[in-house]
Structure formats: C-alpha cells, structure tokens
C-alpha cells in the first residue's frame, strides 16, 4: 500500500458531463434573457412611452342636459343684465321726471305771478279810465256845436281816454269832407281813427270795420270813449265817439262839420268799447 494512500486527494471531484451541460444550458438561458431585457431597455430609452387615456363617450341624454344647463345659465345672465339695464333706465327716467316737474312748477309759478301782475295792472287801468270818464262826463256840458266845453277839461295824459276826447274837441269846427283825413277836414271814420291813434289804438279806416272792433256794449251802458255806430254791426254807415252826458262828438255832414250832438236827437244803433 502506498504511503500516501491514507491522505485524501486534493484533486477536485470530476463533474459529470451531464451536469456540466445542464449548467451551461441554464447559463445560456439566463444570458439570453438578459440580452433581451437589455435590448428592450435600450429601445425604451430611445423612444418615450406615450400613455393614451380613453375618455368616456358622452351619451345623447348627457349632452342634452349639458346644453340645457348652459342655456339656463345664459338666460339667467341675460335676465340679470336686462334687469340691471331696466333699473338704470328707471332711475334715469325718475330723475328726469323730477327735474321736469320742478321746471314745470317753476314756470307755473312765474305764469301765476305774471297773470296776477297783469290782472292788477288791468284793474288799475280800468279804475283809472272809469275815474277819468266820470270826470270828463261831469265836466262836459251841453252846447250843441259849441267848442267852449273843451276849455273846461284839463289836458289828459297821453294814451288815455282823455287823450281821445281832447283830440276830438280840438277838431270842433273843422269841415266835413268825404274821404278827407285831416288836419282841417275829416269824414266820420277818419276823425275817429285819428282820435284813437292818440291813445295808441290803431283802428281800421272805414266805419263798417270800426263797428266790429273791441267789445260790443249796449247803448244804455255807455262810457266816455265808446265808439257809437249807426246801421248794422259790420255794415255801419256812420260813427262817432260818446263824450258823456248823453252826448257824442262826430264829423256829422258837410253842413255841420265836426260837432257835439245829443243822442236823444239821433240815437245810435250800437256801440263798441276799445279802451
């Protein structure tokens, strides 16, 4: 027996061919798997992965509900906007109405004051004319065609009934000539027209038109300065002026000229008042 027979051999056990082949196959498979993974990794690194999320498909009912909701929302917005515009318009209208009312009240007040002042002035003028007529009537005296009665009347203020009477009496004795207009010859209507012009009153030229002027008054309610007419209103053929005490002054006719006469001898058809 060899002197080394009892010492275990240091040589590694021999592997069987079957085991070696099996291990080689496993190793090859692993390497193949790694190679495939590496290739896949390389490809993924070269091309980014995009994930697509598929949205759910809207049904017809859901679409209609969404559209209806949008319409309702829009209608509400339009309603709020319209209401805001209406409120703004109403506020503006109320403000304008208030301003208009204030302006109207101001105008009405001014009109009332003007009317009151005009009424007061008219009353004062009527009172003044009434007093003047009374004085003239008292001072007038009968005397046919005599001019002496004018001497007792004080010169009246311009623009009054007195200025008319004063002018007429200053023409006493002038001639009557048909169509004449003064200064020393007159017909009936030209004398009346010239007399009232002294008071600022423009009368028509002919007696027919003069009989339609002013306010119609009865012959029983005459005042100094009233225009008397003979014939129909609007068709009068003669005119004169009442001077009080039942008398009138006129350019009578060619034989008399400008005179003072009594109404009792030649009653007038009517009378008008322009002052």
Describe the structure.
Helix content is 49%, strand content 13%. The longest helix is centred in the middle third of the chain and has 80 residues. The protein is an alpha+beta fold and 275 residues long. Helix 3 packs across helix 4. The strands form 2 sheets. Strands 3-8-4-5-6-7 form a 6-stranded antiparallel sheet. Strands 1-2 form a two-stranded parallel sheet. It is built from 5 helices and 8 strands; from the N terminus they run H-H-H-E-E-H-H-E-E-E-E-E-E. About 11% of the residues have low confidence. The protein has a single domain, classed as endopeptidase domain like (from Nostoc punctiforme) (endopeptidase fold (from Nostoc punctiforme), Alpha-Beta Complex), CATH 3.90.1720.10. It starts with 16 loop residues before the first helix and ends with a strand. The radius of gyration is 65 Å and the shape is rod-shaped.
In short:
This protein is of the alpha+beta class. It has one domain (83-275): endopeptidase fold (from Nostoc punctiforme). The chain has 5 helices and 8 strands.
SS summary, helix count: 5
> How many separate structural domains?
1
What fold name stands as the CATH topology?
Answer: endopeptidase fold (from Nostoc punctiforme)
Strand percent estimate: 5-15%
Oligomer: single chain
Mean pLDDT: 77
SS content category: alpha+beta
Full CATH superfamily name: endopeptidase domain like (from Nostoc punctiforme)
Helix-strand pattern: HHHEEHHEEEEEE
The strands making up the biggest β-sheet line up spatially as 3-8-4-5-6-7
Anisotropy-based shape = rod-shaped
Number of β-strand runs: 8
User: Mind telling me the CATH class?
Assistant: Alpha Beta
Largest sheet: 6 strands, antiparallel
Q: Compute the separation of the termini in Å.
A: 189 Å
> Roughly how many Å is the radius of gyration?
65 Å
CATH architecture: Alpha-Beta Complex
């Amino acid at each position: 027996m060899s002197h080394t027979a009892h010492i275990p051999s240091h040589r590694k056990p021999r592997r069987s061919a079957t085991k070696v082949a099996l291990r080689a196959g496993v190793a090859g498979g692993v390497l193949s798997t790694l190679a495939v993974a590496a290739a896949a990794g390389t490809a993924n690194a070269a091309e980014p992965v995009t994930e697509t999320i598929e949205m759910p498909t809207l049904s017809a009912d859901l679409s209609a509900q969404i559209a209806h909701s949008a319409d309702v929302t829009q209608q509400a917005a339009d309603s709020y906007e319209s209401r805001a515009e209406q409120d703004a318009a109403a506020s503006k209208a109320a403000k304008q109405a208030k301003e208009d009312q204030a302006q109207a009240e101001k105008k009405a007040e001014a009109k009332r004051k003007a009317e009151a002042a005009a009424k007061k002035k008219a009353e004062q003028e009527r009172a003044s004319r009434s007093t003047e007529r009374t004085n003239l009537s008292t001072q007038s005296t009968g005397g046919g065609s005599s001019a002496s009665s004018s001497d007792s009347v004080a010169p009246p203020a311009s623009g009054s009934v007195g200025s008319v009477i004063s002018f007429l009496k200053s023409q006493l004795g002038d001639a009557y000539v048909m169509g004449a207009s003064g200064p020393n010859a007159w017909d009936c209507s030209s004398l009346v027209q010239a007399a009232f012009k002294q008071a600022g009153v423009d009368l028509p030229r002919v007696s027919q038109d003069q009989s339609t002027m002013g306010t119609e008054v009865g012959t029983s309610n005459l005042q100094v300065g009233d225009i008397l007419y003979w014939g129909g209103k609007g068709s009068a053929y003669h005119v004169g002026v009442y001077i009080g005490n039942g008398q009138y002054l006129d350019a009578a006719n060619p034989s008399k000229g400008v005179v003072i006469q009594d109404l009792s001898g030649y009653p007038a058809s009517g009378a008008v008042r322009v002052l």
